[in-house]
Description:
The structure holds two protein chains of two kinds.
Chain A: E1 7-9, E2 16-18, E3 27-29, E4 36-39, H1 44-64, E5 68-72, E6 75-79, H2 81-85, H3 94-123, H4 132-142, H5 148-163, E7 167-170, H6 172-190, H7 193-203
Antiparallel strand pairs in A: 1-2, 3-4, 5-6, 5-7
Helix pairs in contact in A: 1-3, 1-6, 3-4
Chain B: E1 18-20, E2 27-29, H1 49-69, E3 73-77, E4 80-84, H2 86-95, H3 99-129, H4 135-148, H5 154-165, E5 172-176, H6 179-196, H7 199-204
Antiparallel strand pairs in B: 1-2, 3-4, 3-5
Amino acid sequence: xxxxxELTACPTCDLLHRVVPVPEGGRLRCRRCRxxxxxxxxxxIDRTLAAxxxxxxxxxSALTLPFLELSVVGLHRKASLLDAALAFTSGLVIPxxxxxxxxxxVIPLVxxxxxxxxxxxxxxxxxxxxxxxxxxRVASHLRPWAMAEVFLxxxxxxxxxxxxxxxVDLGPAFWAMAGLVVLVVYEGTALDEWSxxxxxxxxxxx
Amino acid sequence: xxxxxxxxxxxxxxxxxxxxxRTCGKVAPADVGVCPRCGSALAPRTPxxxxxxxxxxxxxxxxxxxxxxxxxxxxxxxxxxxDSTIVGGVIELLHHGAWDIxxxxxxxxxxxxxxxxxxxxxxxxxxxxxxxxxxEARIRLYEIVEFIGRWSMIxxxxxxxxxxxxxxxxxxxxxxxxxAVFFALSVAFTxxxxxxxxxxxxxxxxxxxxxxxx
Lengths: 206, 214
């Protein structure tokens, strides 16, 4: 081990700190800027895996079940989650369909799968899977681009906009998305990036 | 709250000839380029950070103008088509008496993007030329800007849902306007701009002996 292996630098202010064991449930902050540097969250791997697995189940449900149905003077119009994601079908706005599908469906799914791929072997006490560090890095970098919760607020705003002229029925896919947003928040409180990077470092990569 | 023990009082990774990974916290020699643990790009300071911040911000601003001037929604009722811009949509919501939802859209589509442009420009200027605001306050601004940017995407999703749902032939149909593309691009570019900003440069301004550059 080189000297550098026992140090960590604050991501916000670059101050060097010695890496020390963190008591369970505790966290250590940078002594200059108070950014949280080291964490040891209780049952972090179990809770994150549960959130990731639940997210995949809810996303698949949201994609296959009815999402919204509009009714006005005897006319009906159904829209699935995929219809909403791929709504931009004409002319200049076509590329936007790709972007919305990525932001609300693909990236949340990729993140959940990457977390499962990284954490499941650790949970089972095995060596990390091949490319686990790359998968975990991707999950970390994609975090701001997974926008399920922003989309759900968008649904609410759209429903208010339509409210005056028609009635809209919320299908089970809407509630699946709502559940997914709850899981995204839960995952944010469960995921322990510092401890997981430490374990990936200790156990080596395949 | 527990505070981590210092390596040596006040020593930064860069001053020690090292680079700290902003993704995983690993410390490695300054010149390795890629983090040996997580594989992220690694440098003592993000190379060309401020230039990249300004480049992304510039294209973001360039997209924000057509996003506000062109129609966001094209509504056709009984064969009559009306276009509405982002601000027009907010005013329409106000006419319906939905002031709370109008406020959500106004904050997400107007207040957040414009404050982002102003705050990021201010942070870049403060790194280059100094400022009277404390480092802690500027870091707080940076964290808010980085956290809040994605919420601007709300209006794009509103347009997507309305387009998917309101297709009732002659009675009523809603289609997206070109502004939706420009607005989505503007949000994405300003998110990339905020991500390109290396907060360690803000802390460097608190160390007079450190070279002040990007």
